[in-house]
Queue: 2 jobs
Job 1
Amino acid sequence: MSDDTDSKTRILTVIERIEEPGDILRVKLAAPDGAALPAFTAGAHLDIRLSAGDTDLWRQYSLCSDPAQIGHYEIGVLRDPNSRGGSVAFHRLAALGGGFTIEGPRNHFELAEDARRTVLFGGGIGITPMLAMAWRLHALNRDFTLHYCTRSERATAFRDTIATAPWGHRVVFHHDDLPQAQRLDPARDLPAPEAGTHLYVCGPQGFMDWVIDAAKSAGHAPANIHREYFSAQVDITGEGFEVTASRSGVTVSVGPEDTIAKALARAGISIPVKCEEGVCGTCVTDVLDGTPDHRDQFLTDEERAEGSMICVCCSRARSKSLVLDI
Ligand code: FES
């Protein structure tokens, strides 16, 4: 886990909104006074507060613009009526001239800039961090390919951006509604597993699991397979256990449908939580004793195996109790 965090809260103004195909809204955000924004690295995201009426959520959206351009930030958000409400609220709130409270940029999906070869896989709205990576890899004059998979050719967002980008020839489109031969085929499209080759995957969970499993089976080292989940189906349920907050000595019970974060909050111990589904990393807490039952998609395989950190918004315990460094 890495994090080049800028945790300062800012208000940014919507200076442009573009309706892309596929129900994706592309928005440019700038400082109200037009000042340069903090630099970001390819793969970074913003935490954006969506607050109106009964809605008060924080959601994470990847930056898709060229990291060399810091006059504004650009994000793309898919309107998904089946999600927990964040994307619908974003589409509703992103009025031209309106403001959003943001934190970041933060990067949990960093690019290995010295890789000999890089292959990017973006599924649907998972294209957004890949666009920033493509800009950066092009600036570095690196060897890379971007595979972009969408449901249909007609509903493919960012086509104009890619068509005019100086790296557009490196993008290979794959559409579900076109013949099988052009669809993504891991056996054909994954590069050979070599030490200097790095893979990046972002998109819906099924797409990501498919590509990642194929890459592992093909012999790519887990450390060279980078992924970012923007949402996840997470099962938070399980047997009850106890959690002790070591600094205060308070112990709470976590019930079968409870979370560690909620149980601690009821006892007055608050741990910041944003996504509540184990993808953003906001709630990661150090474990001093006990064995976590990881349910998140945020920690790496190595970090899970080590067991010294836990996402308290969704993960549980394999042991009867956990002691946390809070
Ligand atoms: S709040 Fe996002 S990982 Fe826990």
Job 2
Amino acid sequence: MNADATADAGDETPFRVMPAVTVDNEHFWRGGAEGELRILRCARCAYWIHPPAPICPECLGRDVSPEAVSGEATVLSYTVNHQLWYPNLDPPYAVAIVQLPEQADLRLTTNIVNCEPSEVDFDMTVKVTFLEYPDSRGNVWLPMFEPAGEKDEGPGS
Ligand SMILES: [Zn+2]
């Protein structure tokens, strides 16, 4: 049991810019509570819709609701940031666009975590992991991606 997990548990949690959580995107930011990456999907044509929108851009259907995706992805594009943009958001870190296998144009902008930024590469296979942050109206689970499969630690130093 965590006896003292109260207010100051945030020390080792890096700063992140928090999203504006609305009724339209809440499934995305809070799905991590159940370990699920949730994306809106059209009931009529099965199109995945991201960023969230109330109307399907493919068929203009309005029957859209969140569904869990596999959480797998590949790195399509990335950049390693070396500049300090915010206090406690310590560089370097990798910002990436990842491609989800569910649909050809289903992509997320995210951070690649749990590896050195220099280890990130194109076509790298990654999987979702969530960072939980407190928010004014309940917690937010930011979807981040980490290397999938066994970790390559490289040659010993
Ligand atoms: Zn549709």
